[in-house]
């Protein structure tokens, strides 16, 4: 049974975005394992409480992640 587990910051994705993530991940795994795997594919999307994650010894909260995301998005011309 293919299995994927995503950990995302709480409140970062709405229900439609999570559904899209699940559908796309399922399609990706089916592309590797074949259509027969679709019925047995498990995708979990866990929301981590704000401030409950970090990288490189820095604790992140949702606001810090949004600022980082804004810096990475292409600027409009």
From TrEMBL:
UniProt keywords, alphabetically: Isomerase
Residue ranges of domain 4-oxalocrotonate tautomerase-like in the record: 2-60
The keyword Isomerase appears for this protein: yes
Record InterPro entries: 4-OT-like_dom, Tautomerase/MIF_sf
Pfam families assigned: Tautomerase (PF01361)
Gene Ontology MF annotations: isomerase activity
Sequence similarity: Belongs to the 4-oxalocrotonate tautomerase family.
Protein name: 4-oxalocrotonate tautomerase-like domain-containing protein
Protein source organism: Methylobacterium tardum
């Amino acid at each position: 049974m293919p299995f994927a587990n995503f950990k995302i910051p709480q409140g970062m994705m709405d229900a439609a975005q999570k559904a899209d993530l699940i559908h796309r991940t399922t399609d990706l795994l089916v592309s590797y394992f074949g259509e027969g795997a679709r019925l047995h594919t498990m995708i979990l999307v866990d929301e981590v409480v704000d401030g409950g994650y970090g990288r490189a010894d820095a604790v992140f909260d949702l606001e810090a992640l949004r600022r980082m995301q804004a810096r990475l998005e292409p600027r409009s011309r």
